[in-house]
Each structure stands twice: as C-alpha cells, then as structure tokens.
User: Fold this.
Amino acid sequence: MRTAVRAGRWLSAALVAAACTPALQPATLAPAPLAPKDSTEIAIFLIGDAGSSAYDGEPVLQELALQSDSLRPVRQFVVFLGDNVYPRGVPAKGHPNRDDAEKKLAAQVLAIRKGSAQGLLIPGNHDWDRQGTDGWNSIRRQDTLVRQFGGTDVRLAPAGGCPGPDVVDLGTQVRLIALDTEWWVHNDVKPYGDTSPCPTRTYDEVVDSLAGALRDKGRRHAIVLTHHPMRSGGIHGGSFTLMDHLFPLRNFKRWLWVPLPLIGSIYPFARQMGISNQDISGRKYRDMRDAFERAFQEHPPLVVASGHDHDLQVIRGGRPEITNATYQLVSGAGILGHASVVRDIEGSLFQREAAGFMRLDVTRDGRVRLSVTTVVPEGSRPKGESAEVYSLWLTQEGGI
Assistant:
C-alpha cells in the first residue's frame, strides 16, 4: 500500500514538473515576400471561436479591425469560423444570459464593419446550444441577431440551421463554400428529411451539392469554410497534455485544480477512443469527414478553413491520408488567453498555441498569400501586441 502511495506521489510530481515545462514553440519563420498593396484584389480574414470575447475591448478583435482598416480600399471579407457565442449560443429573450450573448455577437459584427469589410459567421457546436436540445432554436436566434446587427454586409452562413453548402463568389478569383458541420454531428432536433425547409435535406444531398460547388467553380480558388476541421493536431484531434491526465476536471471548469493521477487518464483516453462526436475520433465526425473527403477528390479545394481547436495550424494536404484539400487551416484562437495545446502531426507546416487569426491575400493575377498573426502576451511584447509569425504563398499562379 505504501509503495502504491509513494508511486502515486512520484507520478504526480513528475506530471506536474513536466506539465509546468514550457512547450516548445516554433520560431518566427522568414516571411514570404509581400505582394504590392495595389496588386491585392481581396483580403480574407479567418478567425474562429471568438464567442467569449471581451466585448468592451478584445485585443484579437481590435487587431483584426486595425488590419482591415489599414487595407482600404482593398476589398475585404472576414469569416468567423464558429462558436460565435459561448457557452450555449443565443438563449431566448428573458434568459439571464441573453444580454451577454447579444454583446458578444455584436462585438464580432462590429469588428467586421469597422474596416468596411463584409463577412460571414459560420455556426459552431456551442452556437447549437453546445450541441444541446435547444440547438436549432439557438442557431435561428443567432441568425436573426446577425441580420439585425450586420445589415446586408454580414450574415450567418449557412443560415437557419441548414447544413449548406452556402456559396459566395468573390469576383472571379475566389469561391467561398460554407458548411454547418454541427448539423451533421448534432444528435438532437435539426432540419432533416422531408419536413426540412432547407435546400439540402439529407447527408447525401449535402455531399452532392458540395461536390457540385467545387466542380462548377471555374478558375476560382475554392475555400471551404467549416467549424470542425478535417485534420488537426489539437485537442479535438486527440492531443492532450500531461496536465489533462493529472487534472482532468479542468476540462470542465478551469479552476478545478484537483489532482487525479492514473484515474485522470480515463477522460483523455476516452476522448481519443471516440466517446465524443466533437472529436475527430467520434463516429459521426469520422463519417462526416470521410463524406467531405470524397466530395473533395475530383476537384480539391485550395483550403479548408476551420476553428474548433483553440490554436493556429497550417497543414499541407493533397494526400488522402491527410486531406484531399491542398491545405487545412485551423484558426480557432480568436480570444486572448483561450489557446489550447497543439502538436505537430503529419503534414504540419506551422502550429502555435496562441491567440490570433489568419489572412489570405489574393492578388489580381490569382496568387494567394497566407499570413498568421498572433496577439499574445509573449516575452517582452506588451499584452495585446501583434506580430506576423508565419507566412506562405499557397499558390504562385491563378486558380484552376
């Protein structure tokens, strides 16, 4: 018995020591050459999981608005990649959290409109009542508020709890294809089958329509917008730290520092084995990903842009074992202090556990430059200061 207790204490100490060791972060890489400002036709901002933003001054949203404003008169488009309102989307009028939800949503819409941009908000699982019973109602309430706050410049896409795809062509250069991936994995009431008011009513119809949107894009670059990524080195992709094994209750309440050595490993192991459909290991999630990958085969999108994991990742695809899309971008770190662990996986070009967003600059001749901006209290940089930490030309020629 004493031996077991000593072993448990030793393991706890080892886990704490390892967990407190700073994670190695990749150095800022040499930047990809900038295109002349007058050659940029469209700038597309990608930011996700910003639904807990400090609506009286979230640094990440402030930096996004500043960048957007500095790019005038270039056409700009901002995409929020889901989980727009934590913790459970937009509740009904009279609910004690309703006012807070409206302010969080308004802050994101304002960040779009400050720079005279247009924008989309993609639904996430938290917007669907955290995948709960009031999910469909919650997403419809969010749709109404976005229309109220955003006018004709900002909208929820897909709207009304429909799965999509919702197609937005930005001139002759870019086709945005928005999907509500929570609709696919949602276990409760949703618009499905003969009674659905949506243009696509079944899983097969969604996949067929997605394949058609990719096939008919012409020479435009296709960017598929989802909340759930096809590939990720973050927590939803199965990456957990020693802290998650030792203090598993912090996954539910961040202040629950209760050490549970050994038994605490049950939770992360269960997640990795597919207990949750919010993880890539979950059955419904795998079914969705496999169906989308089939749709990508003949006409792969240049980018799948997603949130869900609270980190920043650039993953090179173009291979079935990773993703048929040329690149998977994960930009789910739209709140300062909300980033989570991320690991290097096959295809990883960049990963960072930090708040920030991504930007795609599309030139008049069809080239696409990716940049990653972090907004973090890092080193000697003041809290909220930003820096471009990674950049890459995704294409050197126009769309095909």
About this structure: The chain has one domain: 41-238+279-395. The domain at 41-238+279-395 is CATH 3.60.21.10 (Purple Acid Phosphatase; chain A, domain 2). The chain is about 25% helix and 20% strand. Residues 17 and 242 are 10 Å apart (CA to CA).
